[in-house]
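Hello again, I could really use a second opinion on something today. I owe you a coffee for this, so here goes:
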Amino acid sequence: MPIPLEFRGGITSDFDVVAVRKGAYRQRAQAATARIHRRGPSRIVLPADCDAVTIQRIRYHEGAGGFSAWKLRVLEPDALPPLPSDDSERKGTDTFGHFAPKPYYEYAPVLHYDFVDAPGTLIYTPARGGEQVVRHTSAVDQRGTLRLPQHGYVTLSAHGKWRVSAT
């Protein structure tokens, strides 16, 4: 099962939250889950096949990376906000839970996203586990749509502002 987390970083540091998975011959596969750029709480979701998590302080220059502490805690799935039906503008990293009942079997809501200020990352994690869908946007394709075939979690992460809505 995926694990919802709340990360709180300091005012002078940025962090990468990295999911760690077991690999062959004691090797560890690492995939950056989110980059945290703000002081307040940021909600993220670790994938179901994750064995551990690593927090890495981002260093932009030789020896310059801030000195702030960080905190990490596990959340209940109910603590995550639902996907907004109208345009919601936010900044940084946040995760939404999608657990709405389907009106009919083939129904799959569509998520509309727009990274306003800078390119960002969109991650869809199915609630029952399985492969994550990760979209890294660029300056050319900062907006788009994603169909959500089943219940799960949607994480948006960007240095600047972004908008999201579901229909």
